[in-house]
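@channel sequence for tomorrow's demo:
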Amino acid sequence: MLIYYHHKNRPYLITRSLDPDNQESPIHFLRSRIISSEYTYRRNHFAYPLITPENFIFSISGQVSTPLTFHYYDLLKMPSKTIKMVLECAGNKRAMFEPRTFGEQWKDGAVTQGVWKGVPLTALLSMTGIKADAQEVVFEGFDAGKRKDMEETVPFARSLPLQSAFHPDILVAYEYNNQPLSYKHGFPFRLIVPRWYAMASVKWLKKITVINRPFYGPFQTIDYVYYSKDNSEKKRPVTYMNVNSIIQQPLDYSVQDERYHLIYGIAWSGKGRISKGEISFDQGKKWDPVILDRSQEGPYSWTPWHYLWKEARKGEYIILLRASDSTGRVQPEKPDWNKKGYGYNAISKVHIKIE
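structure tokens (generated this afternoon):
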């Protein structure tokens, strides 16, 4: 779905790096619940892979009784499923950590929502006959390159525990918003894993390998792990999205007129649904409920919210927004700091001035 803007005024992606290409969504200017490929953030670790005939084939092998190869057109003929879901980079809001952490300095636009269509992964795995000693399923993309901490060329590859891989809504997707996947977002195949941070949704899918041991690839055990705060080697994997929110409007440090103000944004969670949103104008001494719009809500979608501020008077204000989900998780006052800068989800905050 494209969004058309009049008078030549339109938002653009915000460049975080060019090599590799990492672009942030102009999320504060997007009101649609379905974000087009044009405005979907881009996260890459390497250069875009070349598209050749090999890209239209992927295999499933390893600890299976019947290794199989699937062509693009094979999947198009198979029973499919469509899901609307949030896709958030694990490093979203990294620039907000204090002290700062190294990595792409995302603000709050490394998140998107759209409709994905594809074949359930469980249907494909079931066709191969998983062996009894299988533990994990590894997904490798065609994108590959050099890392600063390794000499050899490595592909982007991630694994899921076998039990997680059989979730009925994990897809090998070939469409986004009723169109073939765009080249920069994984064409022709992309794994789609609901509720997890987006590193699990491997683009340009090349092969699937079922293994009988833990997977130790660098994007599994060096990156996308939460290291403990004491700088020890203790770590835990990045998996489900934290409960989170964005104040889309008004913009941070904007100047506003003295009038009624519609404050709005979105909230989402990797567990359960958004159950409550609260807003404060006095550093959290008093919290008022916001209105949650559930009119098009699905199990994996974000929840738009809004609040009509009728008491705006001249002065400077800090607006706080905190979301809660149905599992009891609440956005914390302070984020869980970690040296890789993953999973930022502190209470959302904007500063404004009323004149």
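heads up for whoever presents: The chain has a mean pLDDT of 95.
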